[in-house]
Description:
By secondary structure, the protein is α+β, with helices and mostly antiparallel strands. The chain has four domains: 195 residues, Immunoglobulin-like; 111 residues, Neutral Protease Domain 2 (Neutral Protease, domain 2, Orthogonal Bundle), CATH 1.10.390; 89 residues, Sandwich (Immunoglobulin-like); 77 residues, Immunoglobulin-like (Sandwich). Helix content is 20%, strand content 39%. The strands form nine sheets. An eight-stranded mixed beta sheet has the order 8-7-11-5-4-14-17-16, with no helix packed on it. Strand 38 and strand 39 form a beta hairpin. The longest helix has 23 residues. It is elongated. The relative contact order is 0.08.
Amino acid sequence: MYGQRNHQYQNGVMNHCSHSQIQRAQKTKANQLASSAHIARMNQYDVKFYFLDVNLERSSTYISGKVTIKSQVKISQLDTFSFQLHQNLTIDSVKINGQICIVSRVQGEANAKLVTSLNQNTFFDAEIWYKGTPPTGQNAGLSNGTSQTWGNRITWSLSQPYAAYEWFPCKQVLADKADSVWVWVTTDTSNKVGSNGLLQRVTSISSNKHRFEWCSNYPIAYYLISVAVGQYVEYNIYAKPTNYPDSILIQNYIYNNPNTLPNFKTEIDKTKNLLELYSDLYGLYPFHQEKYGHSMAPFSGGMEHQTMTTQGFFNFTLTAHELGHQWFGDLVTCDNWSDIWVNEGFASYSEYLALQYLPSLGSETAANWMNDVHNNVMSASGGSVFVPDTSNINRIFSSRLTYDKGAAIIHTLRFVINNDSLFFLGFKNYLQQYSFSTATAQNFKSVMENVSGLNLNQFFSQWYYGEGYPNFEVRWFQVGNQLIMKVTQTTSSTVTPLYITPIEYRIRRQSMADTIVRVNHTQSIENYVFTLNGTVTGINVDPSNWIINQATVTKDQTLSNSPLLEQLNFVLFPNPGSETLHIQSSSTEITKIKVYDISGKLIYEDQMNQSFTEISVTNWQTGTYIVELENSKGKAVIKYQKI
């Protein structure tokens, strides 16, 4: 789910927020949560199929009809069918396998007493006839409104996280995805209805009523079932992912207004490019046998309803975000709202990837996007990406933490892994392993560890569960061809007192090209000596914004007398060389050696306690390497040229 982008007219109002202050389409009222006892009763069965056969118009949210829930018994004997339906809605009757049940209700919790108990593994149909007007409020489960810009009136659903029960009987448990869903809506013949899956037919009911019959055969979470009712025109395009033999329908329901489609057509057409890009990066669009599409509704944002997102408008990053959700959120759904990161963080990072790989289609650069994200994260000192309180809906959908910090730490993980092939392979493996199911951040962590070979405990402890961000105070001075740096790290929150992380420094030199060095920051104070040619004019910390951080850089002449010049006096020879690299320390023993290629990939690592060592470089590619040497006093970084 995603709200209003910067500098966009919506409903006649200009939003002047930067990306870092995006207003997400989120719940502003507290939905009534089911009690733990009621959830336990609902977990006595497994939902297999939802069939909504309802009446809706574009003029109000009044709803009536029948919902059939096909389920399978999980316990030894089921004597009560428990479900959720908001107390504003009247239940006319409930039948279980054709037998009328007595129903008791406590607010949004409903219990239907079965006439005959059902044995374990038995399949059964619960038919619920109901009617009424759902509760109102911004982004209620079912809303009705008129676009101030285009004048079109729409009725639409937005059920995330706890509001599906406000418009249809259901089981609001994330882990229990239905295997399939049918959404049939009877409405005035002037309306169209957008929903999940494929439109099977439009059936004439009377002279002024017809029924849209949508069917989806993919597993689906309760909050992703959707409707949008209004006067629409249909605009269809097709995507053609690499190595997929067929085209994928992109079906768009746009306000029936002579100016709306011409206004948004260019942006809508970019959906094709995005679907093809994500199919390359993440794996084939997961609902390719049905469709992707959009239904417009008058709210400032988008909601990733499975196979047919509801959007208030179209721009590149909004469309990219909601489409990204079809993989992260729809194909694989968070197992609990505490781990909403596996939905929203990845959909937000999909915006960045769209700007990175399709730069000509966006209105900003990927670098500026990430800079705005970092600034928003650092507008406050604390807060974790993990959501500790899932009763607070605004906290679940925190723009700063869930969306922006969530995206930023994925970017940091990409930097830590330092291999895009492995990074995106991890994405694909995760999506494949948990496809059409639910997952947690720990599940994603395990997959990425298996792919990368890294232990990511520290990463998740500090970036996902931890709070705040690091501050780097860099002091430097150059003596001859030796650059001395003393880096002190503090953090914005006591919850995470130290960030152990790789970091890059761009060293600017007079009349020479800049050089970037990558080192590992493992202590609150790090000392470095870099051997390099030219006159240093300045240093940039983390020039590519891989890490959320603040930094100050000061040229400090007092470092000219630093004993580090002697203590970190390592010698590499021959340099350039072609067969054997000799490394010698004139003082303290070498404790660790790391060698990186010019792309930053670690190609050699060794630990020791000696003042001299040799490394065979015969199999190394010709080119420039960064050798990071460490002893008890600090680190030295020296360039090596393989010829």
